[in-house]
Amino acid sequence: MKKALIIIGITVLYASANLGLYLGLTQRLSNNYSGVNQLKMIDVSKFLPFEEESELARTGSTFHIEDDLPVLDGAAALVPIYASVIDQCYPEGCVTYEGGTFSDDNYYGENFADDSAMQYQNTVRGFNAVVDGSVDLFFTAHPSADQMAYAQEQGVELEIVPIGLESFVFFVNRNNPVEDLTVDQIRSIYRGEITNWSEVGGSNDVINPLLRIQGSGSQTMMEAFMQNDMITRRPMNAIFGKSIGYSFRYYLSSMVANENVRMLSVNGVYPSAENIRNGSYPITAQFYVVYRADNDNPNLRPLVEWLRSEEGQRLIEGCGYVGLPQE
Amino acid sequence: MSDKTFVKIVIAMVVIFTLLTAFHIFYDVYAYKYSSIIYFVSKEIW
């Protein structure tokens, strides 16, 4: 009987430890390449050009391309824009979507045929594709220093042209009582100077300042916001603390809408479309198209000019972003 | 069950359970690095 109790005790001990680990951590981890998060990155099938039910901005265009179609690619958050551009300016039938099956070569589970005018490889691989010449025009936040260094190593000169505005937002769990942080508080959190939510009016919990992968659009933006002075690793003791993360507003509020996550006001201003438009939200950045300076596709530069025209800017606003200030 | 058999069973259990727990921890360390931060925040327990 005593031996049986010992065996049961050992089993219960290990089971409890693993159950606690699962509830506290494992169940919150969804790898960017796993099935659950495949849906969370972006469901490209909702943004396919020429499909009636696609969630695209159909604001009209007098600019149409019939041949020499520039191949477009971009960051996840900008898929609606370049898909809308193809829908409005390209000939029907130029996009071949082959569905989304996850594989080692297709981290985002979204496949387009090699000859499709629309591609989706997201920030890191898509940027490299522009440098390597398989993509003509890439929609992105400003390229990171590493990306620019990669282009330089390859001997490729890039043109980087702003086409719109987007705000950068910070978010917490919806149950976190903190609703507003100042720019200085955010910088102190991400420099490891503020480590507990009670220091910014919240609960007595350790702050877990989440980071994105190097080279992603939001990480590049964050490094610029932090003036390249920020932690590079999450503190180990923060793993069971209460988290704060960052992203682009449109990606968080529209593309990966998650009712359990709440955006924070910054300096007392909520990142609403109106507050971005009127300039009161303090962390706003341009987003860009990037192409090789030696790209000789005859339609590439006219397309870039169109994106900055009144029609192009109307399409960008129709996608939920904010257009460039009127010159 | 003899004492010798019992000790063998206990040692085997501890070794197996420790390995499984270690694998669980290694998985968490790896997945923590690459997980979606939005998903991670949304699943936070309050």
Structure description:
The complex is a heterodimer of chains A (327) and B (46). By secondary structure, chain A is of the alpha/beta class. Chain A folds into two domains: 37-165 and 286-318, Periplasmic binding protein-like II (D-Maltodextrin-Binding Protein, domain 2, 3-Layer(aba) Sandwich), CATH 3.40.190; 167-277, 3-Layer(aba) Sandwich (D-Maltodextrin-Binding Protein, domain 2), CATH 3.40.190. Helices cover 32% and strands 17% of the residues of chain A. In chain A, the strands form three sheets. In chain A, strands 1, 4, 5, 7, 8, 9 and 11 form a seven-stranded mixed beta sheet that branches. In chain A, strand 7, helix 7 and strand 8 (242-248) form a beta-alpha-beta unit. The longest helix of chain A has 23 residues, at 2-24. Chain A is globular. The termini of chain A are far apart. Chain B is mainly α and 46 residues long. Chain B has a domain at 20-46. Chain B is built from two helices and no strands. The longest helix of chain B has 32 residues, at 3-34. The model of chain B has no long low-confidence stretch (mean pLDDT 88). Chains A and B meet through helix 1, helix 2, strand 5 and strand 8 of A and helix 1 and helix 2 of B.
